Amino acid sequence: GATHDALGKELTAISTQLIGEKALVAGWDAHALPLIDEMTGSVKPALVALAIAALLLLAMVMTNTALLTLAHLRQRGPDRALRAALGATGSRLRGERLVTGTLLALVGAATGALVSMLAIPFLVRVLPRDVPRLDGVHFDGVATGSIVAAMLLIALMLALLPRSEERRVGK
Question: Higher model confidence: residue 170 or residue 58?
């Protein structure tokens, strides 16, 4: 593939040749623009801001989920200590946390997917028609899968807390 500069030089040479052949009016020339710049146009800063806002929102949701799960684990400390005293193994207790965290992550991801599936068509109808590439806005399974994977990773990390946490609860 050619670079943007090489393409610009080639277009300048072609323009100069066409002006010499009187096929192009003097003062007019051709120039290359990256396709993404042409497609996003003047809304590129807004799209970047929107993407950053969406990533920050995702980070906030994941942080809140992690903190709520940790608070729930702390609250269940005496319950876990009792279960351990009655013979539950550490792997059994971690397995229960894993199931709880996974269910919480899946319910949260399913709720988010449902809200997205309902909100996207509404927003497409409400937005002005001159928004570039509005016809390409749709519910994306790949993005949803990525979010579900991130939520499951957090659930797994929270379920497999360090053993020192279990020792502290057992005291």
Answer: 58
